[in-house]
Amino acid sequence: MTRPALTNVEFVRQLMEHSAYGGLIQAFVLQALKQYASKVARAEPAELDTPLVSGHAWYGCALEVRSKLALRFDEAQDAARVGGRPAEWDS
Question: Which residues contact 44 (CB under 8 A, 6 or more apart)?
Answer without folding.
Answer: 55
